[in-house]
Structure formats: C-alpha cells, structure tokens
Amino acid sequence: MAKYECMVIVNPRLSEEERNTNLAELQAILEKGEAKVEKQDVWGEKKMAYQLNKSDTGFYVLYHLELPGENITTISKEINLNRNIWRYMFVKQEA
To answer: Domain map of the chain by residue range?
Structure first.
C-alpha cells in the first residue's frame, strides 16, 4: 500500500453540522475503499484562486492516507456523487 494525500474542497455555505455529516460520509467512502486515514488536517475556510459555484471561498480538508492505488478510481466515483464536495485531488507521496 502506498501513501497518498487527498485535498478536498467542501461547500463553505454548509452549516457545521452538514459539513461534519459530509466529511463523515467521505471518511466512510475512504474506508470502504480500503484507505487507512492516518491524519485529517482541517484547514477551514480559505479564499480560492478562482470562483467555484459562484463562491470565492472553500472549506479545505487534507487527508493523509495509506491505500492501494488501484482503489482510487472506485473512491473517486463515489466522491463524485456528493454535490457538496466541490473538488478533490489525490497525490502520491514519495517513500
């Protein structure tokens, strides 16, 4: 299993309760895809370089993961179903 970082931008207009629900759903998707979440780093609301969905800000969360690389496609398909997760990106970490 390789180490990855996954940066996620969540809709900043969500209430804290809604955001926590969405992040819990994301965590379940990651675990279902055999990802071991080593660390979750909540950056909070930040200004973005460009507008997404008519918003200048996004709520950022960085995950440090250990998972089989072939599972990223399956995880991505499930993340795409959540309309409150605006963007995400997996980056493989060097050993």
So the answer is: 2-92
Helix (H, G, I), strand (E, B) or coil at 62: strand
Q: pTM for this one? A: 0.91
Dist. CA 31–CA 75, nearest whole Å: 9
In whole angstroms, give the CA distance from residue 55 to residue 53.
5
CATH homologous superfamily of domain 2-92? Ribosomal protein S6/Translation elongation factor EF1B (3.30.70.60)
Give residue-wise pLDDT tens across range 37-83: 999 999 999 999 999 999 999 999 999 999 998 999 999 999 999 99
Q: To which residue do tokens 């969905």 refer?
A: 53
Going 9 to 10 to 11 to 16, the CA torsion angle's sign is negative
